[in-house]
Design brief:
The protein is an alpha+beta fold. Helix content is 57%, strand content 13%.
């Protein structure tokens, strides 16, 4: 039984998700940010432009240039470790690590280009809003979920290929 996706497949997944994140952010910049506007899709979901100079939930928002470059270097460093580690892990954990890395790189690219991250997905109930996020954040969340799923719910959880 094959235990992982293989190096080429994992690298292809990595590139595809970085590209998917990038094109959705280009769409958001062109359609939401240039003429600041929000597009309501449902009673609980809209596309609303938000610049995030911090990390998740706006943490470290006022960290300035040190935060911009520090977070970018951190994202690239952790992503490199995740990718290299992914080749030694079982299927779901390796996919999870690659998804986390691609999301981190997607947001790091924003910091390089814009100095902050492009967030635009807004989920809410009445006046209660979850902090805005983007496709990279979603990919990171799914990747973490896959890794945790593998650790707690599969027979491969203790498997580590040498």
């Amino acid at each position: 039984m094959k235990k992982n996706f293989g190096i080429l497949n994992l690298l292809l997944i990595f590139i595809i998700f970085i590209f998917l994140d990038y094109i959705t952010k280009l769409w958001a910049i062109e359609n939401l940010f240039i003429e600041y506007k929000s597009i309501k899709l449902t009673s609980f979901l809209s596309m609303t432009p938000v610049w995030n100079s911090g990390v998740s939930f706006g943490f470290l928002q006022d960290s300035g240039e040190i935060g911009r470059y520090g977070l970018t270097i951190f994202a690239f460093s952790v992503s490199l470790w995740l990718i290299l580690s992914a080749f030694k892990l079982p299927r779901y954990s390796s996919l999870g690590f690659v998804l986390i890395a691609s999301g981190a790189i997607g947001n790091a690219i924003d910091r390089i280009i814009y100095g902050k991250v492009v967030d635009f997905i807004d989920i809410y109930i009445k006046d209660l809003h979850w902090p805005a996020f983007n496709v990279a954040d979603t990919i990171i969340f799914i990747g973490a979920g896959l890794f945790l799923f593998n650790q707690f719910f599969t027979s491969e959880s203790s498997y580590y290929e040498k």
